[in-house]
Amino acid sequence: MYITELELKNFRNYKELTIQFDKNVNIIVGRNAQGKTNLIEAVFLSSIGRSFRTSHDSDLIRFGQEEAFVRVKAEKEVIDTKVEIKINRHHKKSIQKDGNTVHRTSQLIDNIIIVIFSPDDLKIVKEEPEKRRKFIDRELAQIKPAYYDCLSNYKKTLQQRNACLKEDYVEPSLLSLWDEQMIIYGSDIIRMRKDFIDRINEYSSRIHRGITNRSEDLSLQYDPNIRFCETKEEQQEVYRKELMKSAASDLRMRTTTRGPQKDDLQFFVNGVNARSFGSQGQQRTCALSLKLAELDFIREETGEKGILLLDDVMSELDESRRDYLVKTLHENQLFITTTDIDPGILEYYPQARIIEIEKGECVNLEKPANL
């Protein structure tokens, strides 16, 4: 799987742009605030129909304009695919895939699969549990329609249950209705998350040993708010009991206190909690191992080689970690944004496409002018 072409109109700081990509390595170079990240943001948009930087679609429209347009063409197993997105300040975003209207973003699942690694991903390891849940949800929802649907239904049910709890009088039968819905969807979420983390743990542990030259062992631990059970029936029964136990506190606090919306993911390096005691370098390596493990998970789950976007992270890694990165990703299409090109990357990828960005415009070069 690889992206062949990107077309933009009034997207961020781009007035109009059409560019073809190399199927292996694309290095996007330029000074800060020129539009490098905007370019890969548009690429990412084609994957799940949402930005990785903002939840407000209007932010994607060029200043002073009413509508932005993004078209991404890709090749998947020798079959061409195309995603077109129109974002209007006053109307709902419209998406088409291969000429057909996309009514739900879940219709984009497993179409163009993209993994992004940026400096913000350090937050997955070092900040609040919400960041880690968001990571799990985004990666699972991107390739598993069943998870996407289950998560969407759970969020709607949770919202309804919380609204019910905020009423001055809570109707027991109505609360019971929401409880049963939460038990069904929540139990499935817990079980799918557990399977995902177990598999990602296997991949990331191997990758982490390689990155650190076997000096560190990484272990991931799923920390569900409601205990994981081996069978679906047992999981639902445990979930039901936990909701019953928390009923009084839920009524008092007027919110749902138990469920997967409280889950967490723990990182351990050589047996030590990386969030609490790891150095920033160790935390960054944990995040990198996690992101590379996604590619292995995607390949095993879908048979496809995911596309990797590396947004301004090469300068954050030491030489050994950069070397590991470029030498192990030769089977995936890469997009690398940077202010300066590392000669080591060009040495390993001499045919890489260099895209120079300046003020929302790009110039394609055979190689950077300073080499």
UniProtKB/TrEMBL annotation:
SUPFAM superfamilies: P-loop containing nucleoside triphosphate hydrolases. Keywords: ATP-binding, Cytoplasm, DNA damage, DNA repair, DNA replication, DNA-binding, Nucleotide-binding, SOS response. GO terms for cellular component: cytoplasm. It is found in: Cytoplasm. Gene3D superfamilies: P-loop containing nucleotide triphosphate hydrolases, RecF/RecN/SMC, N-terminal domain. GO terms for biological process: DNA replication; DNA synthesis involved in DNA repair; double-strand break repair; SOS response. Its main location: cytoplasm. InterPro entries: DNA-binding_RecF, DNA-binding_RecF_CS, P-loop_NTPase, RecF/RecN/SMC_N, RecF_2. Residues 2-338 form the RecF/RecN/SMC N-terminal domain. GO terms for molecular function: ATP binding; single-stranded DNA binding. ATP binds at residues 30-37. It holds the Pfam family SMC_N. The RecF protein is involved in DNA metabolism; it is required for DNA replication and normal SOS inducibility. RecF binds preferentially to single-stranded, linear DNA. It also seems to bind ATP. NCBIfam families: recf. Belongs to the RecF family. PANTHER family: DNA REPLICATION AND REPAIR PROTEIN RECF (PTHR32182:SF0). This is DNA replication and repair protein RecF. It comes from Hornefia butyriciproducens.
